[in-house]
Amino acid sequence: MESLSQKVANQALQTIKEKNPENKKDLAKCAYFVRYSIQKAIIGGNNFDVSTGILRAKDYGPWLQKMGYQPTKKTYQNASIGDVAVLENTKNHYYGHIAIYCGQGKWVSDFEQNCFYIYKDGTKPPYIIYSL
Length: 132
Prior knowledge:
This is CHAP domain-containing protein. This protein is of the alpha+beta class. It has a single domain (4-131), classed as endopeptidase domain like (from Nostoc punctiforme) (endopeptidase fold (from Nostoc punctiforme)). It is 27% helix and 16% strand. It is built from three helices and five strands; from the N terminus they run H-H-H-E-E-E-E-E. Helix 1 (4-19) packs across helix 2.
């Protein structure tokens, strides 16, 4: 049977296929895609409210905890499948970033990332990894 963590990771990959099939990197909807994937995997079906009132990806820690995640001291290099990274905001990236680890070094937000840190300016903000 599929673990809940694996289910979250699989849903993240499926959400990209459905909502961003061209894997565009400039959607600026990481929080929506991650939230949708987690709710779809944990709650199931289509009968859930994807709005949370949270405006910035960097503010998703408390919501993740309500969904059953716990903050860890993991680094992105030793994340487990289904873990969620919440990256702090920076001067040039007001909203921060959020992504789900899907295994084999792959992080997924509103697109399949080529690496953990996605900012073109090379910024590497602090982050917290949350695990189920």
